[in-house]
C-alpha cells in the first residue's frame, strides 16, 4: 500500500489548492468561535437551545451522515458492487427518514427529552438507560475512530504527512470548534460542509462521465468488465448481499437492510435525532429528516457513479486488478476499493478544482467526526455522568464537563482509529457496528413505543440479548463456521439481533410487572393524547410546502421511481 502511495497517489496539489484549504479551515474555526457567543447554558451547548430553523437542521441531518465513511465507503462499494449500492440510500435510508419525521419525531420532541437514552430512562427505567448510554457511547468512539483513520490516510496519500500527524491535526480542528460552540458549531459547519462536499463531487462525476463517453459508455464498459451487467441493476443485488439465491437476496435487502439496519440507524441513532431536536418547533423537527431525504436520495449519483467510473477507468482498479479484488485477493497494483475516489481525483481533476475536492473530502471526514463527538458528549454528560456519577450540580458544571468530555472523546477516537485500520472495506466494519448497537435498540424501542404492557426488566434484558446475538453471528462468520461473504454477516447479524431481542422481551414481559399506565403518557403511542402529537400550522409553520406529510409523499414517489428506472 505504502509503495503504491509513494509511487502514484501523491496528488499534485499546488499553491492555489493549499490556499483554498487554508481558507476553508479558517472558515470552519470562525464558525465555531461565532457559535460560542450563543452558548450560555448546557442546553445551548448540547441542543443549540432548540432554536434552529428546519432547513438548517435538515441539511445538517444529511451532512452528519455524509461523513468520509459514507463518501469513501460508498464509492468503494460502487467500484466493487456497482448500482446495487444505491440500496443503502433508496431502501436503507429514505423510508426510515420519512418514518422518523412522520411517526417518531412527535414523541422525541414532544416529550422534551434531551437524548435517546433519556427516552429509554423514562420508558424503561435505569438499567435500560445505562445499557443504552454505554453502548451508544462506545459505538460513537469506534465510528469517530474510523472517520479519523480515513482522514489520516487521505492526508498521508495527498500531502505525504505521516499518519499520526494527520490524525492528531484533524482531531484538534474538530475538537476546537465542537468544544467552543457545541452543537450549533457542529450543525452550522455541517451545512457548510454539505455544500463543499457537493461542490467537490459533482464536477468529478461530470468529468468522469465525459471521460467514459456518457452514461451509455459507462454501461458498456461495466458490462464488459469483471463485474458484468449485474452491476448495473439495483435488484436483486446478489453480489452485495453475498446470497446466491435471488429471493434470499431481496429478503436480506428488504428486511435486513431496509427494515432492521435502516430503521434502527435513522430512528434511534442519537447522532441524527439530535439534529432534529435542535429545531425551533415541532413542525420544524418533523420536517428536518424529510428535508434531509431530498438530497439523500440524489447522493448516489455523486458518490456511487464516480466509484463505478473508477472501477473501469483507473488502471490500479480495472481489469485484472478488479478481478483479483472481486475474488477477495490482493490486487497486483496494491490498491484497494477504498482508494477509488482518490485515484479518480488524481486522474481527472485540474489544480484549483483539486483544492476544492480535497477540502470536500476533509469536510466529509470532519462532518462525520463532529457528529460523533457532539452526540457522544451529550449522552455521556447527561446520561452517564449527571445521572450516575456526579448528580445535582449547577448547570454551569455540566457545561464545563461537556467540554472536558469532548477532549477525552477525541483522545479515545485517536486510539480506535487503529482498529478501523484493519478492514479493507470500511463499510463492512460500519455495518458490523450497526448490527451490534442499532438493531437491538430499534427492536426494544419500537416494541416499547407501541406495546404498553412491555416491562422495564424486558427493556434491558432484550437489549443485552439482542446485542449478544449479533456478536454471536459475527464470531461465527469470522471463525469460518458460517460462510457469509459480502455484507451478508452484518445483515444476518442485524436480523438475529432484532428477532432475539423481540422474543426475549415478550417472554420476560409476561414474567414481570409492567409500569402503571399514568407513568407512560407521552411515551407510548396508545396512551398519548393525539393533540399533543400535532404541530402548529400557523405563523412560521404555515404554507402547504411546510406540511411534513406532503413533503414525505413527494420523496417517496421519486424514490420508487428511481427503483423502477434502475
Automatic annotation (TrEMBL):
A molecular-function term among this protein's GO annotations: D-glucose:sodium symporter activity
Membrane topology category: Multi-pass membrane protein
GO CC annotation terms, alphabetical: plasma membrane
Keywords: Membrane, Transmembrane, Transmembrane helix
Keyword Methyltransferase in record: no
Transmembrane region(s): 15-35, 55-76, 88-109, 130-155, 161-180, 192-210, 247-268, 289-309, 353-380, 401-423, 429-451, 458-477, 489-511, 548-565
InterPro entries, A to Z: Na/Glc_symporter_sf (IPR038377), Na/solute_symporter (IPR001734), Na/solute_symporter_CS (IPR018212)
UniProt-listed Pfam families: SSF
Subcellular location: Membrane
Keyword match Metal-binding: no
PROSITE patterns: NA_SOLUT_SYMP_1 (PS00456), NA_SOLUT_SYMP_3 (PS50283)
Family of this protein: Belongs to the sodium:solute symporter (SSF) (TC 2.A.21) family.
Name the UniProt record assigns to this protein: Na+/galactose cotransporter
Species, as recorded: Saccharomonospora piscinae
Amino acid at each position: 500500500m505504502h509503495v503504491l502511495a509513494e509511487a502514484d497517489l501523491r496528488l499534485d496539489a499546488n499553491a492555489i489548492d493549499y490556499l483554498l484549504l487554508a481558507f476553508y479551515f479558517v472558515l470552519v474555526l470562525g464558525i465555531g468561535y461565532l457559535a460560542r457567543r450563543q452558548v450560555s447554558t448546557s442546553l445551548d451547548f448540547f441542543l443549540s437551545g432548540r432554536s434552529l430553523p428546519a432547513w438548517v437542521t435538515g441539511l445538517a441531518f444529511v451532512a452528519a451522515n455524509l461523513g468520509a465513511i459514507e463518501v469513501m465507503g460508498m464509492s468503494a462499494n460502487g467500484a466493487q458492487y456497482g448500482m446495487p449500492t444505491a440500496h443503502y440510500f433508496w431502501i436503507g435510508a429514505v423510508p426510515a427518514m420519512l418514518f422518523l419525521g412522520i411517526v417518531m419525531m412527535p414523541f422525541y420532541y414532544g416529550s422534551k427529552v434531551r437524548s435517546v437514552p433519556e427516552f429509554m430512562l423514562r420508558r424503561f427505567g435505569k438499567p435500560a438507560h445505562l445499557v443504552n448510554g454505554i453502548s451508544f457511547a462506545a459505538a460513537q468512539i469506534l465510528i469517530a475512530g474510523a472517520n479519523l483513520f480515513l482522514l489520516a490516510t487521505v492526508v498521508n496519500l495527498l500531502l505525504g504527512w505521516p499518519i499520526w500527524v494527520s490524525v492528531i491535526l484533524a482531531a484538534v480542528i474538530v475538537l476546537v470548534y465542537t468544544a467552543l460552540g457545541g452543537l450549533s458549531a457542529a450543525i452550522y459547519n455541517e451545512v457548510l460542509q454539505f455544500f463543499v462536499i457537493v461542490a467537490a463531487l459533482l464536477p468529478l462525476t461530470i468529468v468522469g462521465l465525459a471521460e467514459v463517453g456518457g452514461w451509455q459508455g459507462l454501461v458498456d464498459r461495466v458490462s464488459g468488465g469483471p463485474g458484468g451487467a449485474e452491476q448495473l441493476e439495483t435488484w436483486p443485488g446478489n453480489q452485495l448481499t453475498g446470497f446466491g439465491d435471488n429471493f434470499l437476496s431481496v429478503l436480506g435487502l428488504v428486511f435486513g437492510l431496509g427494515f432492521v439496519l435502516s430503521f434502527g440507524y435513522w430512528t434511534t441513532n442519537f447522532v441524527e435525532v439530535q439534529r432534529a431536536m435542535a429545531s425551533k418547533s415541532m413542525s420544524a423537527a418533523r420536517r428536518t429528516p424529510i428535508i434531509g431525504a431530498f438530497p439523500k436520495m440524489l447522493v448516489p449519483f455523486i458518490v456511487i457513479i464516480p466509484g463505478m467510473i473508477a472501477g473501469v477507468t483507473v488502471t490500479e482498479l480495472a481489469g485484472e486488478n478488479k478481478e483479483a479484488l472481486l475474488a477477495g485477493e490482493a490486487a497486483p497494483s496494491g490498491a484497494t476499493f477504498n482508494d477509488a475516489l482518490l485515484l479518480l481525483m488524481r486522474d481527472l481533476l485540474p489544480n484549483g478544482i483539486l483544492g476544492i475536492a480535497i477540502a470536500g473530502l476533509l469536510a466529509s471526514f470532519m462532518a462525520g467526526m463532529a457528529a460523533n463527538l457532539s452526540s457522544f458528549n451529550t449522552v455521556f454528560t447527561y446520561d452517564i455522568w449527571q445521572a450516575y456519577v456526579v448528580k445535582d450540580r449547577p448547570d454551569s458544571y455540566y457545561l464545563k464537563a461537556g467540554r472536558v468530555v469532548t477532549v477525552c472523546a477525541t483522545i479515545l477516537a485517536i486510539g480506535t482509529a487503529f482498529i478501523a485500520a484493519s478492514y479493507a472495506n470500511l463499510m463492512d466494519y460500519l455495518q458490523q457496528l450497526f448490527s451490534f448497537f442499532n438493531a437491538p435498540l430499534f427492536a426494544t424501542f419500537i416494541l416499547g413505543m407501541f406495546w404498553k404492557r412491555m416491562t422495564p426488566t424486558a427493556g434491558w434484558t432484550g437489549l443485552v440479548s439482542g446485542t449478544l446475538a449479533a456478536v454471536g453471528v459475527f464470531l461465527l462468520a469470522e471463525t469460518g463456521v458460517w460462510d457469509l461473504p459480502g455484507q451478508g454477516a452484518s445483515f444476518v447479524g442485524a436480523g438475529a439481533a432484532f428477532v432475539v431481542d423481540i422474543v426475549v422481551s415478550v417472554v420476560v414481559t409476561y414474567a414481570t410487572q409492567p409500569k402503571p399506565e399514568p407513568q407512560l403518557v407521552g411515551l407510548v403511542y396508545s396512551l398519548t393524547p393525539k393533540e399533543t402529537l400535532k404541530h402548529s400550522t400557523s405563523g412560521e409553520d404555515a404554507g402547504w410546502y411546510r406540511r411534513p406529510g406532503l413533503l414525505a409523499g413527494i420523496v417517496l414517489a421519486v424514490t420508487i421511481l428511481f427503483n423502477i428506472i434502475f
